[in-house]
């Protein structure tokens, strides 16, 4: 055994990182632990132990909905401080989860993406207008920052009819994003706190940020209710409609209270953009490092839009970009931007035939390591979109790939994210030459979600010869 490792009574290695502490990149730190200690281990930090699983066979068991359900981890408990009982952080048995799920599910079916397509395209055009200016003045683009602007504007417009106008703010982000990132960082750091130190200043700053999030959301809701219309066909409209139904007639309907609607809006603004912007940023990173894959994305886009300067992608076009979709899938395999999810045992059980887990105990799936399980072949670190060809997918266990979590509490926004990201990636590859001017080496920043740090590209307009 490694010097900081001992087997507990249950036979699961315990890796004590208390002496070194948690780094600013806990996911990558824990991936290293998994590489050293294998597919099941407990990470001990002070008094706190977290049980991690990384192998296909163990995750397959943890994904079994009869044995495990979603677990609200310690970090998610911290996120609850500002997202309350929103869908993402709600407990399984909290009535508001089932109500909101029922109200919102239809809004996320594949067909509903047709409703959001125009807003997504409008924001994609904003990205291109901004990038065209970069082409003209020869300055590099900051990829993760621009992808964040684009996904925030998209969820704001498509979900709530609210325009964050992130591309009209120069180099800064909307204050909502800055406050939100600090809140996410606070929930990550709070986990690793020295319980004896004084954290009151940090907590006061967090409270101010959380209040700011709530006030922006109240503005979003007020902008809608002031018009006297609920606007049925977006997320806010559906939620307010369900509320009106209950208030007005008492005649049933799922009914969401205003406090819960506020939590849902915060949840969607957070869940709906951080992860998708990271996915797009990683996809662009891999494309510039893999000229053949970039060429194939370009070819696919060219087949749809030829050399039109300003193509007008239809909803159906996005279904005709299968390789672009494979690139996103593969980017999310290597760097699933929500990199862990937690499961909770429904009853006493035994994992892998030998590791006892008690009813209520939490187990955390470390997704980037699941995505490097031996079932992915000899070279899991290599970017290879052909892993997501229909044949390869059919031959693989559905539990080998979990960037969107699992089961009933899996990501509700998956189709939304993939429609938005596939369209933008294809449009960007169609329009620009992507120039890796700084010979970028991947560094990953963690703010609960993962993003390439300091990734910039220079751009040039593509011509039909490119
Ligand atoms: C849940 C990942 C985009 C809304 C989740 C979960 C994961 C995830 C892993 C499960 C968390 C858990 O089990 O604790 C991602 C990734 C995305 C993405 C990687 C982009 C590439 C979106 C978008 C939206 C969204 C665009 C909204 C428009 C949600 C919500 C939940 C969720 C509301 C909670 C669902 C529930 O428990 O009922 N997401 N997500 N996500 N996601 Fe996403």
Rg calculated over all Cα atoms: 22 Å
Approximately how much helix is present in the residues? 40-55%
Molecular shape? globular
Strand percentage: 5-15%
Number of helices in the DSSP assignment: 17
Q: Please describe the biggest sheet, giving its number of strands, its sense, and whether it closes into a barrel.
A: 7 strands, mixed
Uncertain spans, ≥5 residues at pLDDT below 50?
248-253
* Strand arrangement in the largest pleated sheet: 1-2-3-4-10-7-5
How many β strands by DSSP? 14
Mean pLDDT over the full residue set = 92
Protein structure class: alpha+beta
End-to-end gap: 55 Å
**List of distinct ligands in this structure:** protoporphyrin IX containing FE
Briefly, what is this?
By secondary structure, the chain is α+β, with helices and mostly antiparallel strands.
Task: State the main characteristics.
single chain, 466 residues, alpha+beta, 17 helices, 13% strand, globular, binds protoporphyrin IX containing FE
Overview of this structure, please?
With 466 residues, this protein is α+β, with helices and mostly antiparallel strands. The chain is 49% helix and 13% strand. It has 17 helices and 14 strands. It has a 7-stranded mixed sheet. The chain has a 3-stranded antiparallel sheet with strand order 6-14-11. A two-stranded antiparallel ribbon has the order 8-9. Helix 1 (26-37) links the parallel strand 2 and strand 3. Helix 8 (200-226) packs across helix 10 and helix 12 (291-305) runs antiparallel to helix 14. It is globular, with a radius of gyration of 22 Å. The N and C termini lie far apart (55 Å). The model is unreliable at 248-253 (pLDDT under 50). Protoporphyrin IX containing FE binds at residues 70, 87-88, 101, 155, 267-268, 271-272, 275-276, 279, 336-338, 341, 403-405, 409-413, 416-417.
């Amino acid at each position: 055994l490694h010097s900081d490792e001992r087997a507990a009574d249950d036979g699961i290695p315990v890796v004590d990182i208390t002496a070194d502490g948690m780094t600013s990149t806990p996911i990558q730190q824990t991936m290293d632990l998994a590489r050293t200690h294998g597919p099941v281990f407990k990470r001990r930090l002070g008094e706190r132990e977290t049980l991690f699983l990384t192998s296909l066979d163990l995750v397959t068991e943890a994904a079994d909905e009869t044995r495990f359900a979603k677990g609200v981890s310690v970090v998610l408990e911290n996120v609850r401080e500002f997202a309350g009982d929103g869908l993402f952080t709600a407990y399984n048995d909290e009535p508001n989860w089932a109500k909101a799920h029922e109200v919102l599910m239809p809004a996320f079916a594949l067909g509903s993406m047709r409703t959001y397509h125009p807003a997504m395209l409008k924001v994609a055009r904003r990205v291109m207008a901004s990038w065209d200016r970069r082409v003209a003045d020869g300055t590099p683009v900051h990829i993760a920052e621009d992808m964040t602007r684009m996904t925030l504007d998209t969820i704001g417009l498509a979900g709530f009819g609210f325009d964050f106008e992130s591309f009209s703010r120069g180099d800064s982000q909307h204050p909502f994003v800055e406050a939100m990132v600090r809140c996410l960082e606070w929930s990550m750091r709070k986990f690793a706190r020295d319980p004896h130190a004084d954290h009151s200043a940090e907590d006061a700053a967090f409270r101010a940020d959380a209040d700011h999030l709530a006030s922006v959301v109240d503005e979003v809701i007020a902008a809608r209710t002031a018009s006297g219309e609920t606007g049925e066909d977006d997320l806010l409209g559906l939620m307010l409609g369900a509320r009106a139904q209950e208030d007005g007639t008492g005649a049933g309907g799922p009914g969401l209270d205003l406090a819960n609607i506020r939590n849902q809006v915060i949840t969607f603004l957070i869940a709906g953009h951080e992860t998708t912007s990271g996915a797009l940023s990683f996809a662009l990173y891999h494309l510039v490092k893999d000229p053949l894959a970039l060429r194939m994305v370009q070819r696919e886009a060219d087949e749809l839009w030829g050399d039109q300067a300003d193509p007008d992608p239809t909803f159906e076009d996005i279904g005709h970009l299968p390789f672009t979709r494979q690139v996103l899938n593969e980017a999310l395999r290597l760097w699933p931007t929500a990199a862990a999810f937690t499961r909770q045992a429904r009853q006493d059980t035994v994992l892998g035939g030998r590791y006892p887990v008690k009813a209520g105990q939490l187990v955390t799936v470390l997704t980037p390591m699941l995505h490097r399980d031996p079932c992915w072949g000899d070279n899991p670190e290599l970017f290879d979109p052909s892993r997501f060809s229909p044949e390869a997918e059919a031959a693989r266990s559905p539990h080998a790939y979990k960037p969107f979590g699992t089961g009933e509490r899996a990501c509700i926004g998956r189709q939304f994210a993939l429609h938005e990201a596939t369209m933008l990636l294809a449009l960007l590859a169609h329009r620009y030459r992507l120039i890796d001017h700084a010979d970028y080496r991947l560094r990953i920043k963690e703010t609960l979600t993962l993003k390439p740090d300091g990734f910039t590209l220079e751009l040039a307009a593509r011509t039909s010869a490119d």
